[in-house]
């Protein structure tokens, strides 16, 4: 069965460049981002890990931990981290887990249950291990975003979505198309106009069901 938004993220325990990790314990009361890759020492993935390495301080400001998932072992990950730092200028100071068993790739429906790693494999053998997951402190999946191997991920978009998720989490608010931090947000239909005004201040009514307010701090 496919994972859906608001499903509990499947828990797992596995080895990583930061030692043994159990996902739910590692997340704690933070948000978390898992970003998965079909193999170490591949060109697009190296640029992506480099982008994350540079953004670690931005994720930390948002109480968000990041974890790389790659279908290789910890020894290879540690060697690859040197390339990532050489390319990006920032150390990859976040866990990269060993998924040579395909445990996580299968738990997260990126590979079928019968998948295996053949001798002499190439990245194409695990090409579908290319999904980003944002997970909340409640351990529920808030976003899934899958990319083909030939397309580098847009981490500015991932940061934008993370900001939107955190802004609206547990509030009767939503963000409109192309929203960026600082712009107005949409009031949920659970509130009538008076309730919206009382809770958020001035309400800009575009349509009876489309009402904007200033984003709360």
What does this structure look like?
The structure is a single chain. The protein is α+β, with helices and mostly antiparallel strands and 217 residues long. Helices cover 30% and strands 21% of the residues. It has helices at 23-27, 43-61, 74-88, 103-107, 155-168, 193-200; strands spanning 13-14, 21-22, 31-37, 64-70, 96-98, 131-135, 141-146, 173-174, 185-187, 204-207, 210-213. The longest helix has 19 residues, at 43-61. The mean pLDDT is 95.
Summarize the topology.
Layout: E1 13-14, E2 21-22, H1 23-27, E3 31-37, H2 43-61, E4 64-70, H3 74-88, E5 96-98, H4 103-107, E6 131-135, E7 141-146, H5 155-168, E8 173-174, E9 185-187, H6 193-200, E10 204-207, E11 210-213
Parallel strand pairs: 3-4, 4-5
Antiparallel strand pairs: 1-2, 3-6, 6-7, 8-9, 9-11, 10-11
Helix pairs in contact: 2-3
Quick recap:
The protein has 217 residues and is of the alpha+beta class.
Highlighted features:
alpha+beta, 21% strand, Glutaredoxin, 217 residues, five-stranded mixed beta sheet, four-stranded antiparallel beta sheet, Antioxidant, Horf6, Chain A, domain 2
Quaternary structure: single chain
Global geometry = elongated
Question: What is the mean predicted local confidence, pLDDT?
Answer: 95
Helix-strand pattern? EEHEHEHEHEEHEEHEE
Function: Thiol-specific peroxidase that catalyzes the reduction of hydrogen peroxide and organic hydroperoxides to water and alcohols, respectively. Plays a role in cell protection against oxidative stress by detoxifying peroxides.
InterPro entries: AhpC/TSA, Peroxiredoxin, Peroxiredoxin_AhpC-typ, Peroxiredoxin_C, PRX_1cys, Thioredoxin-like_sf, Thioredoxin_domain
Family: Belongs to the peroxiredoxin family. AhpC/Prx1 subfamily.
Domain Thioredoxin: 3-167
